Amino acid sequence: MVNSERLVELKAFDETKRGVKGLVDDGITIVPSIFIRPLSPSLASLPPPKPNISFSIPVINLNGIEEGSNLRKEIIERIRDASKKWGFFQVVNHGIAISVLEEMLTRIRGFFEQDDE
Fold first, then answer.
1. Which residue has the higher pLDDT, 75 or 14?
2. Which residues pair with 59 in a beta bridge?
3. Quick one: 63 and 27 in the same domain?
4. Given a cut of 80, is residue 74 above it in pLDDT?
5. Which residues pair with 90 in a beta bridge?
6. Nearest 5 degrees, angle CA 60-CA 64-CA 65?
7. Phi then psi for 90, rounded to 5 degrees?
8. How would DSSP label each residue in the chain?
9. φ, ψ for residue 98 (rounded to 5)?
């Protein structure tokens, strides 16, 4: 896409004031071309990624965190390690009821779906 065409499309998109959420609400199934940037020459020369690379998000089990100090220290170390290496992790056995989590998600959606004012 030529830069001038991209600018026209970007301006038109911006003027809708709906943002990416508006695209999602419309049910788009492909990424619009204005969000796709061509590969830079340095990236184009890189070999393709290895398809067999797999990873798993760290899972921290909080079961027993309130029991002994050794187990607590071990869990805290796992949290520290996952935070440093990954920046995020999944927590299981946290003791928060599913109904509380669902209510939280409902309220978060409600907050972000408010009218622009």
1. 75
2. 90
3. no
4. yes
5. 59
6. 70
7. -100, 140
8. --HHHHHHHHHHHHHHT-HHHHHHHTT--S--GGG-PPPPHHHHTSPPPPTT------EEE-TTTTS-HHHHHHHHHHHHHHHHHTS--EEES----HHHHHHHHHHHHHHHTS---
9. -55, -40
- Cα separation, 42 vs 39, in Å, equals 8
Structure pTM? 0.48
Number of domains observed in the structure of the chain: 2
Convert the pLDDT of each residue in 57-68 to its tens digit: 999 999 988 887
Report how far Cα 31 is from the mean position of its chain's Cα atoms. 16
Q: In terms of domains, do 65 and 95 share one?
A: yes
Question: Is 32 in the same domain as 70?
Answer: no
Question: Is there a single domain that holds both residue 35 and residue 3?
Answer: yes
Q: What single letter denotes the amino acid at residue 52?
A: N
Q: Are residues 111 and 84 in the same domain?
A: yes
- Regarding whether 33 and 56 lie in a shared domain, the answer is no
Return the residue matching tokens 């050794």.
Answer: 70
Structural domain boundaries enclosing 107: 48-117
